[in-house]
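Moderator note: this is an archived Q&A kept for reference. The question asked for a predicted structure of one protein chain; the sequence and the answer are reproduced below.
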Amino acid sequence: MRTADSNSTEYTAKISVKDVEKRKEIAATSYATAIENLGKLKFPTSIFEGTAIAILLDLSGSMANRLPVLSGEVAAITDHLEALGARVSVLGFTTHGWRGGEARRDWVSAGQPAYPGRLCALKHICFKDFDQSREPDDWDSMLDGKILRENVDGEAIQWANGLLGRRGEAHRVLLVVSDGAPVDDSTIMANGKNYLYRHLKQVISELQADDQCHLVAVGIEHQVNSIYSKSMAMEDLFGFAETVSSYLAELLRPAMVGVAKKPE
């Protein structure tokens, strides 16, 4: 289980303006390479039509070094899938602060009763809505480190699934990208180390039993196949867009079988 420690806090605070510009350059290079590689893939022209895809990114402190490449890859796959007819939303989840917030202060003031539940303030971010065009500078906050804190995955997945549930497309995909188990130090210390993980497993189980949405996970240097039935693990984020696009094409391909063509 990954923990948010003082090293992560210090790292995010030390990203200077110069470093942010360098991270933007890495993202731009990642995007250009990914677009070139995606152009070599050959999918049936209609495979992504009528599909809503939500990409949900873990924005915890440990993702700081990964986000320059990942943000470029996500931008590339977003543009590519939308060019093929999909509607794509890019979302992120973090917390407003380290080690709890107002909820924790209220709990302490109340005498620290046992098993208080979540003790942090969640921060859910929509970088790009389904019906919104992608603007390059909309994602700059991924790269400056200021929003990277802790991660409560279960409630973030519920939020993203709720957004997908309001879509009218015939097919829906929720793609979760994370590098570790859910962590909020205050919540875990007060409720037990497996509290957030148990909730995540419960949320995943409920969504996987519901055939309204394909729940897919990408573990970054982290195996997630023990809790997600549809998943992949990646060590190198270069190639993320190409790998995920191919995976989603295979996932959606059965939906095309037996679909009669409209008479001309």
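Archived answer notes: The domain at 6-41+52-256 is CATH 3.40.50.410 (Rossmann fold).
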